[in-house]
Amino acid sequence: MTILRENCPVALCSDHAGYATKQHIIEHLKSLGVAYKDFGTYNEDSCDYPDFAHPCAEAVERGECYPGIAVCGSGEGISITLNKHQGIRAALCWKPEIAALSRQHNDANVLALPGRFITAAEAIAMVDTFLSTAFEGGRHQRRIDKIPAK
């Protein structure tokens, strides 16, 4: 099972603190033959995560990319920014079990990672779990339907 959509790349973004982790993820996606679109940043120079999170979120909302993966130092700032978009359910994850639950129960469409607090191997494990876990629906759909602000 995979949540990847045919002819639809995975959206990626990071700030400077998440850049190295994002590069590991890119190499992993390439090894799997998974298409991706990188919304930046493209180096480790200090930058502002919203500059990359907003275009990433917009691409997921429009259906141009699915799902998304975002990385900043703590994962907090980038996930807060992503979640300002009505069509985004970004889940900050720090271990594979949380990544699985974010998909099963919350139908998360963006995986947010804390680049300064996880190893490359941990990031890859969470990416693999996120991409291979389906939304359970059922009682969880009712809760998802109540998320958007009116």
Quick take:
The chain has 150 residues and is α/β, with parallel strands linked by helices. It is built from six helices and five strands.
Provide an overview of this structure:
Helices cover 41% and strands 14% of the residues. It is an alpha/beta fold and 150 residues long. Helix 1 packs across helix 5 (120-131), helix 2 packs across helix 3 (76-82) and helix 4 packs parallel to helix 5. The chain is globular, with a radius of gyration of 14 Å. The N and C termini lie far apart (34 Å).
Structural class: alpha/beta
Radius of gyration from the alpha-carbon trace, in angstroms: 14 Å
What value does the average pLDDT take?
97
- End-to-end separation: 34 Å
The main sheet comes to: 5 strands, parallel
Assembly type of the chains comes to: single chain
Which helices and strands occur, and which strands form pairs?
Blueprint lengths: L9 E5 L4 H14 L3 E3 L11 H13 L5 E5 L3 H7 L7 E3 L3 H9 L5 E5 L5 H12 L7 H7 L5
Parallel strand pairs: 1-2, 1-3, 3-5, 4-5
Helix pairs in contact: 1-5, 2-3, 4-5
